[in-house]
Amino acid sequence: MEGHQEQYYPPPSTSSSLPLWPPHPSYLFPSSSTSMNPPPLPEPHHQQQAQLPDIDWISLLSGHHDHQINTNEPAAMVEVNNKENNVIEAAQEEKGSNKRKGGEGRKISVMKKASRPRFAFQTRSADDILDDGYRWRKYGQKAVKNSLYPSYYRCTHHTCSVKKQVQRLSKDTSIVVTTYEGVHNHPCEKLMETLTPLLKQMQFLSRF
DNA sequence: CGAGTTTGACCCGCGC
DNA sequence: GCGCGGGTCAAACTCG
C-alpha cells in the first residue's frame, strides 16, 4: 500500500447554489472493496459548517487542487484504488476481420496498472448526482453484481479526462457511492461563475 | 440542431 | 484456455 493517503477532491455542492464541501464527515466513510458499514445518519441540521476544513478555494477554483486540505476531521474520502490506472490512448485496430457495429476501428482506452487517483465517497441521498460544479456526460450504465445500475460519467471539458461512477448499494439503496477518477485540469465553471464577482469585490475592497 | 442520455454490443482483465 | 464481469463504445433516441 504505497502512499495510501487521503485525498480530497474539488468541492461538489449538494445544491445548485453555493458549495457545501466536504460533506459532513459522518456522511462519508472509506469505500473499500470488502465491507461498507455506513455510520448512523446524522440529523440534517447537524451539517456543521463550523467544522469545515480550511480550504484554499482560490487554488481549487484555478484548478490547482492536487493538494490536501488541512483538516483534523477523520477520513472523509479515501483513495480507493492504488493499483490502477493509467490511461494510455492507443489507437488499436479491430482484431481480425469481425467489425463492431458501426464498422470502423476505434480508439481504445487501455487501463494500465499505474497511479491515476481515484476517490470514492458515500452519501445517503435521494439524488444520485451530486452537483459538484463540473459538467458531466453520461457514457454508460449497466447492471453489475454488487450495485444495481452504476452510471458512468465523463467530464465534458474537452481537455479533461476525469470520470466518475455513481452507484447505489444493493444492500442499502439509500446510499450513493460516487467514485471520481482523475483530477480536473480546468477550473470549476459553476464555482467560478458564482465566486468570481465576490472575489473581484474582495480584491477591490482590499485596496483600501 | 446540438448536447446529453439510453442501451445493446463489444473489449479486456482476471480468476478458475 | 475459457467464461464471467466490469467498463467502454457508439448508434439511436430524446430534449431544449
* Integer-rounded radius of gyration: 19 Å
End-to-end C-alpha gap: 51 Å
Low-confidence segments, given as residue ranges, are: 1-76, 80-114
Q: Quick check: average pLDDT?
A: 56
Major beta-sheet overview: 6 strands, antiparallel
Coarse shape:
elongated
Number of strand elements: 8
Q: Strands of the largest sheet, in order across it?
A: 1-4-8-7-6-5
List keywords for this structure.
single chain, 208 residues, alpha+beta, six-stranded antiparallel beta sheet, two-stranded antiparallel ribbon, 8 strands, 11% helix, disordered N terminus, DNA-binding
Report on the structure:
There is one protein chain. A hairpin with a 7-residue loop joins strand 6 and strand 7. Helix content is 11%, strand content 23%. It has two helices and eight strands, in the order H-E-E-E-E-E-E-E-E-H. It has a six-stranded antiparallel β-sheet with strand order 1-4-8-7-6-5, with no helix packed on it. With 208 residues, the chain is an alpha+beta fold. The chain has helices at residues 57-61, 189-206, and strands spanning 78-79, 86-92, 106-112, 118-124, 136-141, 151-155, 163-168, 175-181. The radius of gyration is 19 Å and the shape is elongated. The structure holds a DNA duplex (16 and 16 nucleotides).
